[in-house]
Amino acid sequence: MPTAPASDVALIARVREADAEARAAQVRVFLLAAEWADAHLDPDAPAPGGECLHGCRAADRHDVEVGDFGGGCAEGCVGDPDGFHDPFIPVVRWDAAAPFAAAIGRTSQAGSLMIRDALLARHRLPRVWRRVEAGEVEPHKARMLAQSVIGRPRDVSQHVDQQLAPVAHKIGRVALERAIDEAMLRLYPEQREADQLEALDRRFVTLHVDSINHVGIADMSVRGDWKDLHDFDRALSRSRSPSLRRTRRTASCPTPSTYAARVRSACWPTRRRPSRSCPVSTHRARPSGPSWSSPSPTATCPATPSPATRPPAAP
């Protein structure tokens, strides 16, 4: 088995060392985001609870229908879709994100999102946060887990933290969404069923009339149950199979190759059996030698009948 040169081995070692340093630096920045938030808390921020200005329903540990949201807005506040005022994390001053974002070369919005994700991971996913501090989970994995619990009740985030913390370093988005759905179905089956019925009420089929073009092609949008759409797609695929398209094309309008074959069969005499439908001259000059094959005709297919076959004129 061939071995790599010593220079390649040394270079790969340097690459691994640089990558480890970059990962460690990312972890330090993520941890510093939480420390920066602790140093710039908003002292005038109201405590979770009470009536929401946007009319959201408040939920605490006694609410068994939607879950425990720490007295905050159930399923997230309508006026805070990004979760900056999550009831389980402290509120940071509005001007705290700009200096932090400038220090790492990001926009203020990006800095705010990093601070939010760090606080969500520390307060709502403590097991995942400890693995981040130990350098076992990369920040982008921790941020993906933190974003998945925004607008979720306390027990759902606890379930995610307990089940996914051991595999947080390698989990993907599809597996994470599946775990969230499993937690919601296990903890809140009635709400899950109500959400499904509400989604079924939003099914539609829309034909975009203005999308038709000069060839008669238009667009259509369909929203429905996955099983129905899957069967519909398979039915369309079978009806527009390539063999069926070739059959319809040949039956409706002959292709150039089919038309040429018909012309040759009608007007081109063969060596063994001359065509009777097209009067052409069969006089050919036969060359000498044994290599004679099918010669070409000396006349083409006439467009009008010859004088010998023309009917006599009326007296």
List the defining traits of the structure above.
mainly alpha; 3% strand; two-stranded antiparallel sheet
Describe this protein's structure:
By secondary structure, this protein is mostly helical. The protein has two domains: 8-200, no CATH class; 204-211 and 218-251, no CATH class. The chain is built from eleven helices and two strands; from the N terminus they run H-H-H-H-H-H-H-H-E-E-H-H-H. The chain has helices spanning 6-39, 97-103, 108-124, 126-133, 139-148, 154-164, 173-187, 189-200, 226-239, 242-252, 256-267; strands at 204-208, 219-223. Strands 1-2 form a two-stranded antiparallel ribbon. Helix 1 crosses helix 3 (108-124), helix 3 (108-124) crosses helix 4 and helix 3 (108-124) crosses helix 5 (139-148). The protein is globular and about 60 Å long. Mean pLDDT is 79; it is low at 251-256, 278-283 and 291-304.
How many β-strand stretches? 2
User: What is the CA–CA distance across the termini?
Assistant: 103 Å
Largest sheet entry = 2 strands, antiparallel
Tell me what portion of residues adopts beta-strand conformation: under 5%
Alpha-beta content class: mainly alpha
Q: Roughly how much helix do the residues carry, as a percent range?
A: 40-55%
Helix/strand layout:
Elements: H1 6-39, H2 97-103, H3 108-124, H4 126-133, H5 139-148, H6 154-164, H7 173-187, H8 189-200, E1 204-208, E2 219-223, H9 226-239, H10 242-252, H11 256-267
Antiparallel strand pairs: 1-2
Helix pairs in contact: 1-3, 2-3, 3-4, 3-5, 6-7, 7-8
Structure in a nutshell:
This protein is mainly alpha-helical and 315 residues long. It has helices at residues 6-39, 97-103, 108-124, 126-133, 139-148, 154-164, 173-187, 189-200, 226-239, 242-252, 256-267; strands at 204-208, 219-223. Strands 1-2 form a two-stranded antiparallel ribbon.
